[in-house]
UniProtKB/TrEMBL annotation:
Sequence ranges assigned to domain MsrB in this UniProt record: 12-134
Residue ranges crossing the lipid bilayer per the database entry: none
GO cellular component: cytoplasm
Species name: Notoacmeibacter marinus
GO biological process: protein repair; response to oxidative stress
Pfam family, one: SelR
Name this protein carries in UniProt: peptide-methionine (R)-S-oxide reductase
Length: 136
């Protein structure tokens, strides 16, 4: 597989070759990891959370907080254009899905019950992200 191919243009086979089975299930098939299963829940260092599919910066550790949900939670993305949102009508309800703006990978959902200053809770699948600590 060519590493120069834009992430949005990768085939399903290329994604399967690039990602672990669990990353593929969540990022490409809109799955959800089991609550409390991600080591990123306990990540307390300063740094940035990036997309596991393409490496795009998504969330700063400064916006991370403990929501008690069992998934890494943030009150805002790193900036405009980091993520996109989409209506999700699965599971007989309407939710707002969050995807990586670069590779369109499924990250999780955003809810209006987070802390200030935004009042939002970006409830993300840890398997959909990697953590890059700040240089210390």
């Amino acid at each position: 597989m060519s590493q120069t191919k834009p992430p949005a243009e990768r085939t399903e086979k290329e994604w399967k070759d690039l990602l672990s089975p669990e990353e593929f299930r969540v990022l490409r098939k809109h799955g959800t990891e089991r609550a409390g299963s991600s080591p990123l829940n306990h990540e307390k260092r300063h740094g940035v959370f990036v997309c596991a599919g393409c490496g795009k910066e998504l969330f700063s550790s400064d916006a991370k907080y403990e929501s008690g949900t069992g998934w890494p939670s943030f009150y805002q993305p790193v900036g405009e254009g980091a993520v996109t949102t989409h209506k999700d009508r699965s599971l007989f309800m309407v939710r707002t899905e969050v995807r990586c703006a670069q590779c369109d990978g499924h990250l999780g959902h955003v809810f209006p019950d987070g802390p200030q200053p935004t009042g939002l809770r970006y409830c993300m699948n840890g398997v959909a992200m990697n953590f890059e600590p700040e240089d210390e």
